[in-house]
Request: fold
Amino acid sequence: MASPGSVTRWDDEADVVIAGYGIAGAAAAIEAHDADPKADILVLEKMPECYQGGNSRASGQSLLISKDVEALKSYQRAMSESNPIPEDMLSAWAERMCALEPYIQERAREAGAQYIHGAGWSERAAILEFPELGAREAVAHTATILPIPSGVWLTFKACVEKRSRIRREFESPIVDLVQDPDTLEVFGVLVERAGRRLAIRARRGVIMATGGFENNLDMQRNYFGLSNAWPLGTPGNTGDGIRILQKAGADLWHLRNQGQSGGVWPGFRFPDHPTVFLRQLFFQSFSWIDIGGTGARFCDETSEWQLTHYKQKVHGEWIDLPHQRVGRMHMLFDENTRLYNNLVTKVMSWNAVVHQYDWSDDNSAEVAKGWIVKADSIAELARRIDRDPAVIEATVRRYNEACAAGHDAEYGRRAETLQPIAAPPYYAIEVVPAIVCTGGGARRNIESEVLDHQHKPIPRLYEAGELGSMFSNLYQNGSYLTEAMISGRAAGANVVRLAPATG
Ligand SMILES: Cc1cc2nc3c(=O)[nH]c(=O)nc-3n(C[C@H](O)[C@H](O)[C@H](O)COP(=O)(O)OP(=O)(O)OC[C@H]3O[C@@H](n4cnc5c(N)ncnc54)[C@H](O)[C@@H]3O)c2cc1C
Reply:
């Protein structure tokens, strides 16, 4: 923290300062504005304006809609059993969740956008991740806002832009809080802009909504234990909020959720792209397998793992699939799979949605770039990806024999997906562990107050969204965006209600 005495002058001031402009920051700004339309609200975003929106913009835009408070509570309690969420927080969250749909519909109306049931890009009315824990009772349906992609984010952005007293400044990462070293009361923030360090006073308080640490490999290694993990969302989420809140005296939580909780997905990583491509979720043909460091397969590749955020049930426990602990991975496929499947999804991820990289439908452009390696035989393919030809040939042979038998004794792939890798030429693409989100951050309460090590609120300091998310262990689809709304709204409403600081 920087002490008030170290600030010689304030370069700017606002009633409410919000760090991070994703859904949590936007929801906080809208709520603070509507609670006090005279308040001066300043949103500080690290990324340039063209890259605003954080993971909220790159995400799948699924929203969990629930109508049954008790069922929702019980479901979340079961998902978080190994690291319980405080009961009072769980109850208040479930009540707010069950009252959230009209708020979302109102935002869509205000922005002139269309709210729909379903995810928009999948035929399912609802994704029920863990039915035996109570998903069916808790989840009324999934919802989203058009257009696809990014409709929910675009709606919140439009609602912010309609409120002229919400200022937004880009390329303005906050780097520290200005705090009383004894009481920890927060008076403002330090920002780095165009090579200068500026002090910005927050008369009523500060809301930290800087997202996760997907793009911080060092934190992934030290806080969660992934040795190799790459972001599917914004490159801007480097865990700045965690560092700043640690320094501010906050207690930390939820750094070790399963896959932290969005899971570890198969991604593709290439030079000049700081984030990774998300592999296709819906394949039309299945003449492909994944192999790990030993050259052997390691899971049922074609199961719909996206429906459980890449968690599998082992010994009665839902745990991450092994994608982050099998060494170097490749996807191997034949000409049929190349021709009939675009290898990446276009409805979410930073590269597809924000950079709008137009991956060729038959993958030929990516073969030409050398991103996908091509060869006329499996042995030659193995050599080109620096693998032992005999091992890879044996793996493909075993898989093709399983296809012929209609039974995958190794990993139980469904019979209809057992299509041999038999149509030359053959292809390989390296697969990397890809991170959807990280929920860890400062411990907070349902009013979004940041808590210190005695679990007491740090005065005038709030937190919202994925940074310090309330969810622990497992995660139900559509919960992060809705929690970003709920925690952002609480932070915005509570901070704007405070009398200006006298310090
Ligand atoms: C591919 C993908 C699919 C997903 N699908 C879904 C889904 O369908 N449903 C769902 O509920 N969730 C989904 N999620 C998760 C969800 O998108 C996020 O949890 C949610 O958007 C987090 O919102 P947020 O506002 O907390 O953070 P973000 O939207 O990530 O915003 C954080 C912002 O803070 C900025 N920032 C970082 N550091 C600083 C700093 N020092 N100063 C100022 N600004 C800073 C970042 O640049 C960023 O713009 C998905 C995520 C991904 C990546």
